[in-house]
Amino acid sequence: MDWSLLGCGAGGHVTFAPDEPGLRDRFGFGTREGQAWRCLRCGTFVIGEPTASGPADSAPAVRRDTQVRSALILRIFAVERFLRALVFAALAIAVWRFSASQQSLEQSYAHALPPLRALLRDLGFSVQHSKILGLLNRAFTTDPKILTYIAIGCAVYAAVEVIEGVGLWLLKRWGEYFAMIATSVGLPYEIYDLTNKVTWLRVVAFLINLGLVVYLVVTKRLFGVRGGKAAYEARLRSESILDAEIAALAAEQAAPGRHAKPVPDEEPHPASTEPAAVREPFEPAPEPPATHEPFQAATDPPATHGSLQTTTDPAAVRELFEPAPEPPAAHAPFEAATEPAPAQEAPAPEPPDPAADEAPDADGAGVTAPPPLPRRHPRS
Length: 380
Hints:
Layout: H1 3-11, E1 16-18, H2 21-27, E2 28-30, E3 35-38, E4 45-47, E5 52-54, H3 66-100, H4 102-123, H5 131-141, H6 144-169, H7 173-196, H8 200-219, H9 228-238, H10 241-254, H11 276-279, H12 294-299, H13 306-310, H14 314-321, H15 334-338, H16 354-357
Parallel strand pairs: 1-5
Antiparallel strand pairs: 2-3, 3-4
């Protein structure tokens, strides 16, 4: 169970806007709906105005996580103390009123006792062994001063219970000490009371008081137990969101490059023992020095070949523009060496066209050929 969220659900978020720029960036950021601020209890960013603002030292002290559970337990004990205070306060008032009008109440009791005894006999109760009637008879026969002292004692006990309840409800350190001491003083009498007679009411009251004492001493580190107050406050600071962010910001300012990737130190290269003749093939050749500016070379006119300006021989001019002949192959390709190239089949000769044979020569292309003479057939 997330006790921090449970505390925010019961009492609301506690947002804070610190004045320090570094902390302010960590506790707030802008959204489309508005500025959001971080809750000091559950750590959730809540949209709206902050609950408190100012320097970090003035931030409200908020209990988180297990401290919320501890506060709930202490307030349960506080409610139990308030109930005790009400009971003993009512008893003190009743005893005081009884002591003030003891004689008149005794006369009223004497007139009402005979019909009361008859009613109890009809109901089957033994009047002779009734504890209630015995307590009333003893009260009427008690000295009024003793009754006054009893009333004062009940009132004082009720006041002590009220102080315990207030201190536990407000979660104050002095309230924890006061509740532990006041409860421990009453434990011997409760143990003695249990030795005389064991009842469920006495057992429950004893277990509640003993549990409160043990819980306060162990969890609140009272009287130096488990490191005392210093260890208790250190634990509270370790659970505080504000203190954790302050420590993180201080660490970043002390070491701003701690998140950067570390650069390994350059190790000195060992001196080479190889001769210069062996190292030269593995070293890059030095670049030739630039003889002119790169942008000036682009603007200068290109130089023309001298032979074109002086020669007038056509054959020499053609040699300049003809591609260079390919060098002869040093050896035949692999395929030619292993398998001869297939011979290309010659096309089949076409039958001679008689009209083509009778076509005129090229010299008489413009002269029309005379019609052929009729063939003579021999007479039979």
